[in-house]
Amino acid sequence: MPRSAQDAERIRERDARIVRSAREIAESEGWPAVTVRRLADAVGVSQPILYRHFPGGRDDIVARVVVDGYAELAEAMDVAADGADRLRALVSAYLDFARTHPAVYEAMASARSSVVFAAEETPAVLRRGFRLLEDAVGGADARERAVRAELLWSMLHGVSQLDAHGRLDAELDEVRGAAMVALFERRG
C-alpha cells in the first residue's frame, strides 16, 4: 500500500514502464521473449519487485497489455463520422491498429489471459469497444445489434490475421474494406 501520493505515482510509473517494456520486447522479438526475468532487467528492478507490481507475473502483465490494447483500439475506432462513413472509418481504424501493433493485437486476439469477454466482469473498456461496433452496424434490437457486431468483429479479426501472415493481396485493401462496409451498413 503506497504511503503517499508520491509513492502511488512512482508505482503507477513503474507499472507503466513494465507494460511498455513488455510491448516493446514483444513487438521486436515476439511474445516468447517476454519473460519476468527479461522485464525485470529491462526496467531495472528485481524479479520480486516486479511480482509486487504484478503478482501473477507474466500473465498479469499480458492481461494489462490486452486491456490497454483494447482501450487504444476503442479510442481509434471512436470516430466522429455518421452512417457508412463512420463504419468505413471504424473498419479502417481497426485494421490499421492491428497492422501497426501486431504483437499487441496478437495478445488481444489470442493470448491466454485472465481478461473475461462477454460477461458481467468484462472490463468497461472492452464493453465500450464492442458498443462502438454495435453502434456502427445497428440492428432492429439489442440482440441483432450484438450479433451483427460479433460478425463484424469476427470478420475484422480474420482479415487482420490473414493480413498479418501475408495471405491477402494488399492492393485489394480498399476494395475489401468497402465490401465489409457494404455488408454491415447500419440497419434499424
UniProtKB/TrEMBL annotation:
Pfam families: TetR_C_33, TetR_N
Keywords recorded for this protein, A-Z: DNA-binding, Transcription, Transcription regulation
Domain HTH tetR-type residues, every copy: 12-72
PROSITE patterns, per database record: HTH_TETR_2
InterPro entries: Homeodomain-like_sf, HTH-type_TetR-like_transc_reg, HTH_TetR, MT1864/Rv1816-like_C, Tet_transcr_reg_TetR-rel_C_sf
SUPFAM superfamilies the record matches: Homeodomain-like, Tetracyclin repressor-like, C-terminal domain
Chain residues forming the annotated DNA-binding region: 35-54
MF terms in GO: DNA-binding transcription factor activity; transcription cis-regulatory region binding
Name of the protein in question: Regulatory protein, tetR family
